[in-house]
Design goal:
Chain B: InterPro entries: Bact_solute-bd_prot1, SBP. Chain B: Keywords: Signal. Chain B: This is Extracellular solute-binding protein. The structure holds two protein chains of two kinds. The longest helix of chain A is centred in the N-terminal third of the chain and has 32 residues. Chain A is built from 14 helices and two strands. By secondary structure, chain A is mainly α. Chain B is an alpha/beta fold. Chain B folds into two domains: 213 residues, D-Maltodextrin-Binding Protein, domain 2, CATH 3.40.190.10; 211 residues, D-Maltodextrin-Binding Protein, domain 2, CATH 3.40.190. In chain B, strands 1, 2, 3, 4, 5, 6, 7 and 9 form an eight-stranded mixed beta sheet that branches. The longest helix of chain B is centred in the first third of the chain and has 42 residues. The chains are: A mainly alpha, B alpha/beta. The interface between A and B is large, with 51 and 54 residues.
């Protein structure tokens, strides 16, 4: 039975209204807010002061904000390489019929079940601590005093320390998606390849990778969104240190204040925070589109 | 089957996690409860409640009725909340017809309060930093001048105004006009704090130091004595790096100068000889090993734990420090404190007269429907008994005059007596916004860890300041 077009519209209406109300309206309002100077999040529209593109100009001229953009690109690139290298490795190992697959998979996924705040405290206060931290103790035990004396959270090291700590917690999530993707590839291909005498490397590069292209593209977009909204780790690792600040955390500082200490007075500009939000959205859209260009959708996939 | 096992494994894992979290919390709650219970019982002694009800019966308070809502900045697990609960209980005994609702918001109050007030929710009394509250909530605050003339509770016939430390009240009053309000009192200060050097008296004694340093020269001499005795002199955490820069420059030049330094668009102010002197002195502290090597990577609260554990002798912080690290330091820790030593060659606007101090405040809603009952409750909250409860249970400085200060802060009283000028947090060094966080503090860390020479520090700061402000 063919449905009348108006009936289709009627059935779609609730979903469309909800979508417009909870997604499109806030986005448009944020876009509008980015052109105003707004003293507090709860300010009435009458208190907004129109400033045009000044918020954006200030951001471009602020070395602190520009630094935060460089930081996030580094996180995206370095963290991405780290995470995908390990996620692929584990996903392939887990699909190669090792014993206790479920146990290992749960173990690798485990950090994802812990709150990021808890994980970062563990890394900061227990792993990287320079007097009794894990790294210091282990290196001391091994007699590697030069390595043991490194302060993992000083100006020079904190950025990479943060990326390592964050990547540790994120590998499991991407591994799970890749793992599911690999499991969907029919075993026949591997059996045929094995009969022909292909090495594990050949099988990975000639069978797994090409057939995973679509899954990989999706995880890459997911990673881009995660990386561009990098927030909690920046907040817990650096407070407002320029070495670890990211646009998302900068946005938070502008909207909710610098925090850290209840005794600091400060001036907010919610409008400036909104313009950071708009820039993050734009960057995510552009990079996602580029990824779509680089990995066009293919019919041959599982 | 497969699915079931997976589900089981995930349930098991999450249960284990939840359990560890819950047991972790449970322990700390238990210890807090057991710590406070013995001290709670003597405070409800008959004499105290008798005096409270006696003073209440003099005023027409007992006729009060209605509902009073109080939003607190503490969370219900903090020791301050227990003191507030007791004050509310005393209030209820004297005013049985008033219904009191206390909401313990914790520091989230800073985000929740304004929307709540603007939506017209009933909040009669709230706690806030007075400076921040007057600037952002000026349409909601009640002028308290008339109410302050009422009799205070438990202060032998003094008015509320006379029962509070005068310098704090003066400070609160001075905030009104700059915020755009009519001159007057809009907040009652409480929980006063000051930024001071805190030190471990046992370690000072071990190094043979008999008096606290007052000048930079004495400070260096004491650092040397500590070092000779094998004790690490100074440490700080990433969260308080600003205090060290601000402390030095504020002590030399006062906070107005520091404020204009970080806002100077030309960068020329950084070429002032005092900045080079600052850089040389910081390099000296680093080169002689007076700074802990760990300052480079200290993540709050790692540095203050070193003080609590007796590894380091001094830490520059607010007077809340002894309470904050009481669990690690233990009851036998001998606390001492002194003001930032006087730096030579200043402009005479710093020194001991300038102290970075402030307080939290109790404020009232202008649109409150039950002002008389609400102020009666405020009187209990700033009454002598509650304020002394804050001193004994939360190691906070009492806001009332003639109250005994908590023992770990006994020496801090000296600084409050010296103080004539209130300097802002960080002595103004944080007033540069993104320039302060993005440039001033990280460049100072390069200097303090020996990666930048004093001359290069001055040159870099001047150049960076010019560059930062050129776009504006």
């Amino acid at each position: 039975m063919r449905l009348n077009k108006s009936i289709i519209a009627l059935f779609l209406l609730p979903a469309v209204i909800i979508y417009l109300a909870i997604f499109l309206y806030p986005t448009l309002r944020t876009l509008a807010m980015s052109f105003y100077d707004i003293p507090a999040l709860s300010s009435k529209v009458a208190e907004w002061k129109y400033v045009g593109l000044v918020n954006y100009e200030d951001l471009v001229h602020s070395s602190y904000f520009v630094g935060s953009m460089k930081n996030v690109l580094g996180i995206w690139l370095i963290g991405g390489v780290l995470i995908f290298a390990f996620a692929f490795l584990y996903a392939v190992i887990l699909t190669s019929k090792v014993r206790g697959v479920h146990f290992w998979r749960s173990l690798i996924f485990l950090p994802n079940t812990v709150s990021a705040v808890v994980l970062s405290v563990v890394w900061l206060q227990y792993v990287f601590n320079s007097s009794y931290g894990l790294l210091t103790s282990v290196f001391n035990r091994l007699g590697l005093t030069a390595l043991a004396n490194i302060q993992w959270t000083d100006n020079e090291h904190i950025y990479f320390s943060m990326i390592i700590a964050f990547s540790f917690g994120s590998i499991g999530y991407f591994m799970l998606i890749l793992n599911a993707g690999i499991n969907r590839i029919p075993g026949d291909y591997y059996e045929a390849a094995t009969l022909e005498g292909a090495s594990p490397w050949t099988k990975f590069f000639r069978i797994t990778l090409p057939l995973l292209r679509d899954v990989f593209r999706t995880t890459l977009v997911l990673w881009t969104i995660t990386a561009f909204n990098f927030f909690v780790w920046s907040a817990t690792f650096g407070l407002d240190d320029p070495h670890t600040v990211t646009p998302a955390f900068y946005m938070y500082q502008k909207v909710f204040g610098k925090g850290g200490n209840v005794y600091v007075e400060e001036a907010f500009n919610v409008g400036s925070g909104a313009s950071v939000g708009i820039l993050i959205t734009l960057a995510t859209l552009i990079v996602s589109a580029l990824i779509g260009r680089l990995f066009p959708k293919e019919r041959l996939e599982y | 089957m497969n699915m079931k096992r997976k589900a089981f494994a995930s349930v098991l894992l999450s249960t284990m996690l939840a359990l560890t979290v819950i047991t972790g919390c449970g322990k700390s709650n238990e210890s807090e409860a057991s710590m406070s219970s013995p001290s709670a019982s003597p405070s409800s002694s008959p004499s105290a409640s008798a005096s409270a009800s006696a003073s209440a019966s003099e005023s027409p308070a007992s006729e009060l009725s209605g509902k009073v809502v109080f939003w607190s900045m503490w969370s219900n697990a903090e020791p301050q909340a227990k003191v507030i609960d007791e004050a509310v209980a005393d209030f209820k005994v004297a005013n049985p017809n008033v219904e009191v609702e206390v909401k313990y918001n914790g520091r989230d109050i800073n985000k929740l309060l304004k929307p709540a007030l603007e939506s017209g929710q009933q909040i009669d009394i709230f706690e806030q930093d007075p400076g921040a509250a007057l600037s952002t909530l000026k349409d909601h605050v009640l002028k308290l001048d008339d109410l302050l003339a009422q009799q205070a509770i438990g202060s032998d016939g003094k008015t509320v105004k006379d029962s509070i430390i005068p310098s704090l009240l003066d400070w609160v009053k001075s905030l009104a006009v700059p915020a755009g309000l009519e001159d007057g009192y809009y907040a009652i200060p409480q929980q006063p704090y000051a930024v001071l050097f805190f030190y471990n008296k046992a370690l000072f004694a071990k190094a043979g130091i008999t008096a606290v340093p007052t000048s930079w020269e004495e400070f260096l001499a004491d650092c040397e004595l500590l070092k000779q005795a094998g004790i690490e002199p100074i440490t700080f955490d990433d969260a308080y790096r600003d205090l060290f820069i601000g402390g030095y420059l504020g002590s030399a030049m006062g906070s107005d100068w520091t404020d204009s330094l970080v806002k100077d668009k030309t960068g020329e102010m950084w070429k002032d000889p005092i900045v080079l002197q600052f850089a040389n002195d910081m390099q000296n502290l680093q080169a002689k090993g007076y700074f802990s090597k760990k300052i480079a990577g200290n993540k709050y609260p790692a540095g203050q734990q070193d003080l609590a554990l007796g590894k380091t002798a001094m830490y520059l912080n607010g007077t809340w420090l002894p309470n904050e690290i009481a669990a690690t330091a233990g009851p036998d820790f001998q606390w001492g404190s002194f003001q930032f030593p006087v730096v030579p060659n200043g402009n005479g606007k710093g020194g001991f007269q300038g102290l970075s101090f402030g307080a939290q405040g109790l404020l009232m809603n202008k649109n409150g429907k039950n002002v008389s009952a609400a102020f009666e409750l405020v009187k209990y909250l700033v009454g002598k008994k509650a304020q002394e409860g804050m001193a004994t249970k939360a190691l906070a400085i009492p806001a009332t005059v003639d109250s005994t200060w908590p023992a770990p802060l006994a020496e801090a009283e000296v600084a409050f007596q010296n103080a004539k000028v209130n300097m802002p947090w960080g002595f103004g060094i944080d007033n540069g916004g993104d320039f302060s966080t993005g440039t001033v503090i990280p460049t100072f860390m390069e200097l303090a860890t020996g990666k930048l020479s004093p001359d290069k520090y001055v040159a870099k700061m001047a150049e960076q300041a010019k560059k930062f402000y050129s776009g504006k």
